[in-house]
TrEMBL record, chains A, B:
Organism taxonomic ancestry: Eukaryota, Metazoa, Ecdysozoa, Arthropoda, Hexapoda
Family listed: Belongs to the GST superfamily. Omega family.
Organism from which the protein derives: Drosophila navojoa
Domain GST N-terminal: 20-102
Top-level taxon: Eukaryota
Annotated Gene Ontology cellular component terms: cytoplasm
Alphabetized UniProt keyword annotations: Oxidoreductase
Name the UniProt record assigns to this protein: GST N-terminal domain-containing protein
Length: 241, 241
């Protein structure tokens, strides 16, 4: 595993050992990239990390990510060295390829239900953006949270995946880690209701203690600080480098 | 298998035999629902079809499709009778559950590459809407087609899935079946280039002869007529019923 500063326009391609180990193109504060990091770490898949400055992207990024997005996973050990994109596709690939610590259930119906739940999390991510970018009211965000509060009740387990975190838990976690940014933006309007979201709140506390969440964790203060610099037009990508 | 007219607001729930057979909530002209039909037919999965009037939706649709979209697959033979949504999740579920005629490759990398290709087809579907709804120029649609023309070349096979149609072929087909609507809307501006898209054009001709494509086919004239009635605000859902 490696890391370093975020590479920008004009940066040469990083020199990495010719070891056949997958290379993850990422950005330290990107919630979608975080899904890939959590999966790689939870499944103990050796990998290299190449951080990308998303404001001024390096010219060679297009070779690994045609839409210039992160995460992208460059499989240098495979024939023709293909690169994968789309966080959920990358995560499913890793889960199918590496048997250690399976994240998705094996049963087709349960797999489908977990994928639908993550798909419905789109209501959370879109309302996150509405609040952060357009200073919207949080009501619709809480309505989206209701789905997940209710689901934890239906499943009757501490985690969405049962007695330990799995696919749903890790795929939705990055946005819960960033709730402090919502709180910062909304100020007095932040009214997360611990009674309404009792199960989700307990789940957040448990997730904060998870080994793999901790392996790629950013503190509330750091998330807020990154958001502030990004909003001001000078995103401080290397704040933690 | 059954079918019938599209059920609207006020319609009672359809009376279906208590046979444990999955029920597909669909709309005859919906390209996303068509993905589920093609998969059910190609894999010979017995099922009932319940067509939904998407302009005036029946009150009970929410019980099977929380976002009121089609397709939804109601698994009445499973415990708690869950319903699945999202066309690609439904198709993957069917492919994992029913071994006959596998559509996705078994190899994790090939699976991921097929899923990425279908994800990138979003550039086609969004440009379709821009032309149909906003009367946009077709240039970006053809640029999106380039990806698929190039991919057929790279794969070196008649179909995206090899010597017979598979996941990618059936997932993208519904929009190619609707190209005549684009032609109708664009009139003189329609400039599909048979040389530029030689491989795609040959693939279209092959797909038109496929047993399962034919099992749920709508003619160019019918697609155009449905689009005309829909655009005029009185979508003729039951045109083929």
């Amino acid at each position: 595993m490696s890391a370093g500063k975020h590479l920008a326009k004009g940066s040469p391609r990083p020199a990495l050992p010719d070891d056949g180990v997958p290379r993850l193109y990422s950005m330290r504060f990107c919630p979608y990239a975080q899904r890939a990091h959590l999966t790689l770490n939870a499944k103990k898949v050796p990998h290299h990390i190449i951080y990308i400055n998303l404001t001024e992207k390096p010219e060679w990024l297009v070779d690994y990510s045609p839409l210039l997005k992160v995460p992208a996973l460059h499989l240098v050990g495979e024939r023709n060295q293909p690169a994968l994109i789309e966080s959920l596709i990358i995560v499913e690939y890793l889960d199918e390829k590496y048997p250690e610590n399976p994240l998705l259930p094996k049963d087709p119906l349960q797999r489908a239900q977990d994928k639908i739940l993550v798909e419905r999390f789109g209501a959370v991510t879109s309302n996150f953006m509405k609040i952060i970018v357009h200073n919207a009211e949080p009501d619709e965000l809480w309505t989206a949270f209701d789905i997940f509060e209710e689901e934890l009740g239906k499943r009757g387990s501490a985690y969405f995946s049962g007695s330990k975190p799995g696919f749903v838990d890790y795929m939705i976690w990055p946005w819960f880690e960033r709730l402090p940014v919502i709180k910062f933006v909304l100020e007095d309007r932040y009214n997360f209701d611990v009674k309404r979201f009792a199960k989700l709140n307990a789940w957040i506390e448990l997730m904060l203690k998870d080994e793999w969440v901790k392996s790629f964790y950013v503190t509330p203060e750091q998330h807020v600080e990154f958001w502030r610099t990004r909003k001001a037009g000078n995103a401080n990508y290397d704040m933690l480098a």
